[in-house]
């Protein structure tokens, strides 16, 4: 046990023990064996195996580089394996589902560089006694399951609040325990080994981003190529044309996927596609929402690149490595003098680049405020209804009280559907791709909810009349002992609709 605790902390030992028990139980139960039989063929399919090989090859190169840079050693093997299992594998699943443009990767980097990452690292550095950790894991799972069930219905909301309180108390105890250890034993965390453990996940994430980006690109291209039609030879030409058009630009490939009616669906031959791609390129160039911030982004990235070049140049110039080690020319140079000149030049470039970076960040902010004001003016009615609906959202919609449902949701949904239709038709080129996609999803969810309700013109109904209609439809709907299909569909559609309202609030930065 001492040898085990010298490698793993108590929480990791407890978690590993419970995972092993769960696997053993799963293997010896019929449900577990059936699950493995259904999952294993998918996990080890040909496409996934190829991807595993590519990933493991690239990942091995990154670890090898860190080893030669004298950053990585065997003491970090455990942290590396944990990062792959608990960070990278879920990240791949998230990438396949959500990676559509650079915003996904920018958010990913921002989340991993946030101060909360440092706080979580410190909170997880010290653990409780092994017996406490072994008991804490099943208790936490039990409370988590109860919390998930209690969050579904209004009658169990008090249970949810009680568990919320327990989580808060436990969190406070963990913080007190960590602060006590930090004060009593600061040397355990303030050392090079701990710094490496903290930096390792960040370095691995940055160094493996090309593989993650490649996965997102491959997945998106696959969704585009599956829609290609025509003769086999013509399909190959069409695919090559599509790749030449979009290349490795994920945003452009996603635009192709979202606009199949403009390109692939209209093309049976490569010649037709070439003409459609020219028109599609003109369409993309005319999109104000996507192109308005291009110049500020280019300026800022250029400044950041110049700052990196200048910093690297200054470090190289002031280092003890001779220039002869870096070049192959067979002549003598005054290295000291050259380093002095290069240092002056790069120092000046660094100062200029920093000044321009500050200026262009302000320039980008001003441009963003300009386009935001234009959008708020153009989409005023839609954003107003979204904001109003967000105020009316409830954790548990009153599907058993149609008059409340009418006041909180139904009377607003038709307005949002009408304004969404108008925004998509009139202001298509004013919005960015992700803004337009959010509005289209909102349009879809409102249309689905209206279809479930079964009323085309809600203005002919007041709350009392709607209640009569709603109750009649509920009565005639298919029903078993516990579930009424009509109210169940209403509840399901409202949940999707509510989530999309919250997402629109976030994307359009609507103040509450």
The residue ranges in which pLDDT falls below 50 over 5 or more consecutive positions are 321-333
Proportion of strand residues? under 5%
Count of DSSP H/I helices:
22
Q: What's the number of structural domains?
A: 4
Which structural class is indicated by helix and strand composition? mainly alpha
State the shape. globular
Work out the helicity level: over 70%
Q: Based on DSSP secondary structure assignment, what is the total number of beta strands? A: 0
| Rg over CA atoms | 29 Å
Mean pLDDT equals 80
| Helix-strand pattern | HHHHHHHHHHHHHHHHHHHHHH
Distance between the termini: 54 Å
Keywords: Membrane, Transmembrane, Transmembrane helix
Transmembrane segments: 12-29, 49-68, 80-96, 108-128, 134-150, 162-183, 198-218, 298-321, 341-362
């Amino acid at each position: 046990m001492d040898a085990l605790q010298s490698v793993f902390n108590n929480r990791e030992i407890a978690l590993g023990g419970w995972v092993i028990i769960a696997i053993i139980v799963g293997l010896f139960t019929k449900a577990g064996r059936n699950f493995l039989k259904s999952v294993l063929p998918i996990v080890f399919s040909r496409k996934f195996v190829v991807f595993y090989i590519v990933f493991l090859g690239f990942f091995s190169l990154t670890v090898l580089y860190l080893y030669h840079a004298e950053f990585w050693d065997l003491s970090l093997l455990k942290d590396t394996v944990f990062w792959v299992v608990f960070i990278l594998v879920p990240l791949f699943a998230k990438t396949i589902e959500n990676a559509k443009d650079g915003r996904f990767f920018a958010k990913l980097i921002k989340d991993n560089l946030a101060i909360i990452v440092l706080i979580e690292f410190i909170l997880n550095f010290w653990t409780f006694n092994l017996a406490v950790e072994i008991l804490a894991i099943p208790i936490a799972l039990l409370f988590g399951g109860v919390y998930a069930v209690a969050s579904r219905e209004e009658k169990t909301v008090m249970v949810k609040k009680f568990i919320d309180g327990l989580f808060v108390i436990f969190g406070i105890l963990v913080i007190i325990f960590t602060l006590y250890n930090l004060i009593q034993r600061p040397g355990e965390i303030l050392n090079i080994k701990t710094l490496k453990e903290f930096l390792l996940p960040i370095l691995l994430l940055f160094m493996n981003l090309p593989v993650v980006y490649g996965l997102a690109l491959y997945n998106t291209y696959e969704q585009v190529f599956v829609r290609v039609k025509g003769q086999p030879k013509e399909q190959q030409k069409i695919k090559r044309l599509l790749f030449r058009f979009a290349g490795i630009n994920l945003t452009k490939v996603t635009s192709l996927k979202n606009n199949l009616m403009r390109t692939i669906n209209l093309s049976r031959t490569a010649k037709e596609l070439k003409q459609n791609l020219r028109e599609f390129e003109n369409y993309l160039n005319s999109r104000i929402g996507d192109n308005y911030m291009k110049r500020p982004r280019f300026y800022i990235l250029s400044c950041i690149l110049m700052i990196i070049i200048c910093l690297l140049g200054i470090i190289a110039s002031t280092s003890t490595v001779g220039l002869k080690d870096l070049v192959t020319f067979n002549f003598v140079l005054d290295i000291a003098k050259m380093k002095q000149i290069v240092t002056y030049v790069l120092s000046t470039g660094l100062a200029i680049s920093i000044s321009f970076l500050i200026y262009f960040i302000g320039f980008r902010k001003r441009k963003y405020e300009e386009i935001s004001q234009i959008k708020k003016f153009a989409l005023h009615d839609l954003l107003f209804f979204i904001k109003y609906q967000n105020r009316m959202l409830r954790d548990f919609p009153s599907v058993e009280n149609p008059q409340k449902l009418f006041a909180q949701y139904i009377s607003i949904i038709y307005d949002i559907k009408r304004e969404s239709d108008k925004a998509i038709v009139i202001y298509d080129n004013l919005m960015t791709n992700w803004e337009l996609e959010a509005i289209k999803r909102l349009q879809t969810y409102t249309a689905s909810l209206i279809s479930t309700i079964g009323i085309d013109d809600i203005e002919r109904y007041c709350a009392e009349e709607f209640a009569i209609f709603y109750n009649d439809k509920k009565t005639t709907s298919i029903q078993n002992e516990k579930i009424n299909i009509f109210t169940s569909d209403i509840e399901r559609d409202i949940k999707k609709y509510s989530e999309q309202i919250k997402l629109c609030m976030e994307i359009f930065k609507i103040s509450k």
